Amino acid sequence: MGQIAQYAINGLMSGAIYALIAVGIVSVYKATKVVNFAHGYLIMFGAYFYYTFAVIFPGMDWAPAWLASWQPGWMTEMREGLTMFSPMGAVLDWAANLPRIVFGLAGALVCNAILGRIIERVLMRPLMGQSVFAMIMVTVGLISILSGGAQLIWTADADFVPTIAPNTPLRFEMFGTMIFLFGADLVNMVIALLMFGGIVLWVRYTKGGIAIRATAEDQSTAYSMGISVPKVFSRAWVLASTTGAIAGAILATRNGISPSLGLFGFSVLAIVLMGGLDSYVGVFIAAMSVGVLEAMTQWKMGGDWAEIVPYVTVLVVLIWRPHGLFGQKEVERI
Amino acid sequence: MINANLKASYGADERVLDNRYKQGFVYGMIVLLALFTMGANDYAILIASKMGLLLIAVVGINVLTGYTGLVSLGHGAFVAIGAYAVTIFNNVFTGTLPAGIMPFLSVPFAVALAAGIGIVVGLPSLRVKGLYLAVTTLSANFIVIFLIEQEVFAPWTGGMVGLTTNVPNILGWELDTKREMFGLIAVVGLATILMAQNLIRTRVGRAFIAIRDRDYSAEILGISLLRYKLTSFAISAAFCGLSGALFAFFYARILPEQFELNLSLELVAALIIGGMGRTMGPVFGVIIIVMVPEVIKITFGAITGDAAGMAQLRAPLQEIAFGLLLVVFLLKEPLGINQITDRLLRAANRWPFARG
Amino acid sequence: MLKIENLHLSFGGIKALQGVNFEAREGEITGVIGPNGAGKTSLFNSISGFYTPDQGSVSFEGNDITGLSPDKRAELGLARTFQNIALFRGMTVLDNIKLGGHTRLKTGVWQALRYFGAARREELELRRDIEERVIDFLEIDHIRKYPITMLPYGLQKRVELGRALAMRPKVLLLDEPVAGMNREETADMARFILDVQDEFGTTVLLVEHDMHMVMDICSQIVVLNFGQQIASGTPAEVSRNDAVIEAYLGAAA
Q1: Fewer beta carbons below 10 Å: N end or C end of chain A?
Q2: Which InterPro entries does this UniProt record tie to the protein (chain B) (predicted)?
């Protein structure tokens, strides 16, 4: 029983990150009707930006020492007398990294926002009004450009980055067994959930969000009502690339940094279709379910099989419900 | 001015090569291809074989995406199925079946298997359209490659390390040089183009195009969407399977990673660059998709002089070039190279009376 | 020939059709009229199989076809045109009309891939047939190799009629065949519809707003308003019907 709880919690934690990635795909789809096949590679760029600002730059000669490792006097004092692997030690390790974590996240956010804007302006804007097929295939071309570009800029192989939160091991009891977690994973989940919720609320209640929803309903009517559709497009892409930057940073702390981070985009694409493409709620439920299913598969069949869980699930769900769990069926006028 | 366009019978009007210029062009090209097979150097043969193998698969995906309007980002899976099926068939039946007739059984087996799995993968197409299909086919690709890599099937598929393939033996004639193999690929390639052309000028292909252009209008004419969408999937998967079978014959070894998403995207990109839904589209497309990386490789080698530090930049550059090609064509010439040649031909047709 | 019995159809809360009953008699032209939103196109979509009615039935030559898919109905001999032309825009006129012959041909995948032999014979036979029966008949031989996009509206309508005729239908459904046409084009189209009935004995059911044309060529008229059938009968009967006058002109104060 306890085993199930342990794996379910692991699943929910990765599900929350899937949801955060999915938010980018859904928002771009809502505003522009484009399903971004390259979203995973946008996330990969976010991860590499985080790596650049949190690892490469602080390691450079010109960087101040406190950026690479912040060691104020009080911290050194507290460190004295601590045993190895003590929770307090993990917190202090994190505190020492704090400047570069903040610097890394800020850098990733800004750079990815610029990247998202450039992509929208250069590639997607000229295709406004063109066939959906053409727009989707442009994002497919973008996969190669981004993946090749990352390898060109960051030739380094897989590397590690500082975790966003203290990586204290946590133990507690649930259903009579010990559950074992890392603090950083828990904080990642909270960050992902908060961002997801924030975006949903933003889209529902703010002026900018309503503009996105209006554009999703009917582009030309929204345009004629005074909503600047191009602005909505670029806002959606920036939203996607900034959430992608955070998701990328989180993924980088969990999986290490490598070009294969881009593949996450495809599993999340499957999750998004499963949930219904334009429904935040549906996508959230799908992300969480897939996260848990993956964890269960990992438990019962081994880590290999977990990687195809999203793909198998999407096929099953779409055959059963063609428009996803919560998607709306479009009525075709003849 | 292109003349000789007047026809005296419906038969003459229904021909594909309906004037002397087209006939001259096609027959001339076939002669050139034959001369090329005999005279070209090994490097040229290797490049041309790559094009030929890709061409057969792209013709297949043209049937599905170009004619029927169903998007697939997973046809690399069918190439994999063709390649593995032909090799496994061979390994299982070596000794029981005479080597000389093996290809006549193994290739149809591989093609039929690919077509069968194509129908299964195509099933969601009955209920979902467009991008949903792109994702389901993409998922199918991941699943197929994953299964091939599994330890459980390793006794047949070789798992991650792949399989050593065998040389085809056609009635005692062993195609053990690349040149002979290219001859086979060229013949099969021409045959697939001809078959695709035949398809679209008769009932079945017209039904495909009707589904692409306006599916409800096709239904009203008595075209069963179920039947024709699945037929289209089966045909395109079969062509990809055929390409895979030849791929296995051509290379000494097959690995699962050769058939991953990259291959699927390459197929679609070649089709878009060449021209979707056009007979010659795949031909133009594969020439570009194979030549551009080669050109980059050659110029890159010439500039950097094969410096070890720079060599690792080549692959990313090729990848970027591939993506840029696709994006530039979609932005500037979404109907592909075929559209450019059409424009030139129209201009030639009117010359010297009008331009454009 | 084509019998509609007690047809009900609704979308969510909107009742598009509420109890429509009539029969299109063999070899005759039946007209369906009604103000905008009366349910005429919904009726056509139910007859051709795109919508499944909530209640009631459609029968064709005495057989109930309510549950059949559109392509099965086409095979039985039901053809139609659409209000906003549903031709295949990328294809030529000839290819569009050839598609009309789909149900009559037998070429399978294998024959199609080979072409030479059975498929070629059948193609040439089809070509001769549509040239003689459709292209000559509708006087569109000068545009047969033109892509649809190059044709003016009136000709596109005619090509769509041609595509339906190539099916050799027993019943032809025409959804606003002269909508948006000028007087000459309307007269041409009316003449073609009468010729079709005359020459091939086809049963015609048409929806139209052009009262003059409907009154002139139909032998029976069905009037719909807000999904309800408010009258039916000969043109003379319908034009005297109070309910019809009220629906079109509004109630007298």
Answers
A1: N
A2: ABC_transp_permease, LivM-like
**Which residue from C144, C166, C158, C174 is spatially nearest to C100, judged by alpha carbons?**
C166
Q: Is residue B352 part of a domain?
A: no
Closest CA to B68 of B237, B203, B274, B206: B206
Q: CATH number, domain at A20?
A: 1.10.3470
**pLDDT less than 50: residues of chain B:** 356
Report if residue A325 sits inside a domain: no
Residue A84 — very low, low, confident or very high, per pLDDT cuts 50/70/90?
Answer: low
Each residue's pLDDT tens digit, B61-117: 999 999 999 999 999 999 999 999 999 999 999 888 888 889 999 999 999 999 999
Range of the domain at B177: 18-257
Q: For residue A14, what are the contacts with CB-CB under 8 A and spacing of at least 6? A: A291, A294, A295
CB atoms within 10 A of CB B303: 9
Query: Which domains, from first to last, does chain C contain?
Result: 2-77+169-249 (3.40.50.300)
Which pTM does this prediction carry? 0.91
Calculate the average pLDDT of chain B: 90
Strand partners, C7: C20
8 Å CB contact of A145 and B124:
no
- DSSP secondary structure letters along B268-320: HHHHHHH-TT-TTHHHHHHHHHHHHHHHHHHHHHHHHTT-HHHHTTHHHHHHH
Structural domain includes residue A327: no
Tell me whether residues C45 and A331 touch, CB distance under 8 A. Answer: no
Residue A45 lies inside a defined structural domain of this protein:
yes
**Per the CB < 8 Å rule, is C102 touching B199?**
no
pLDDT the model gives residue C253:
46
Q: How near does any CA of chain A get to the CA of C119, in Å?
A: 33
| Beta-carbon separation of A334 and C45 below 8 A | yes
Question: Among candidates A160, A238, A225, which has minimal Cα distance to A199?
Answer: A238
CA angle B80, B282, B68 (to 5 degrees): 80
A152 vs B: CB within 8 A: yes
State which residues form the domain around A227: 2-320
Q: By the 8 A CB rule, do B143 and A308 touch?
A: yes
Instruction: Find, among A230, A251, A275, the residue nearest to A117 by Cα.
Output: A230
Reported as a single tens digit per residue, the pLDDT across C49-106 is 999 899 999 999 999 999 899 999 999 999 999 988 899 988 899 999 999 999 888 8
- What are the angstrom distances between the C-alpha of A113 and each of A48, A126, A239, B267? 14, 19, 8, 32
Position C207, amino acid:
V
Which two tokens mark B239?
Answer: 């062509």
Cα(B15)–Cα(B5) distance, integer angstroms: 12
Chain B residues within an 8 Å CB radius of C80: 220
Q: How near does any CA of chain A get to the CA of B36, in Å? A: 33
**Distance separating alpha carbons of residues C122 and C101, to the nearest angstrom:** 11
C-alpha distance from C90 to closest chain A C-alpha (Å): 15
Q: pLDDT tens for residues A185-202?
A: 888 999 999 999 999 999
Give the list of residues 6+ apart from residue B246 with CB closer than 8 angstroms, or none: B52, B53, B56, B181, B184, B185, B188
C-beta contacts of C177-182 below 8 A and 24+ residues apart = C177/C81, C177/C206, C177/C208, C178/C208, C178/C210, C178/C213, C179/C83, C179/C208, C179/C209, C179/C210, C180/C153, C181/C153, C181/C154, C181/C157, C182/C154
- How far is residue B293's CA from residue B298's CA, in Å, rounded to a whole number? 9
Among the residues of chain A, which ranges form H helices? 2-32, 39-51, 65-68, 73-79, 87-119, 132-153, 183-205, 207-217, 219-224, 229-255, 264-275, 280-301, 303-306, 309-320
Give B332-343 as a DSSP string: H-TT-HHHHHHH
CB A238 within 8 A of CB A116: yes
Contact present, C111 and C117 (Cβ < 8 Å): yes
Which stretch of DSSP H or E encloses residue C100? helix C93-100
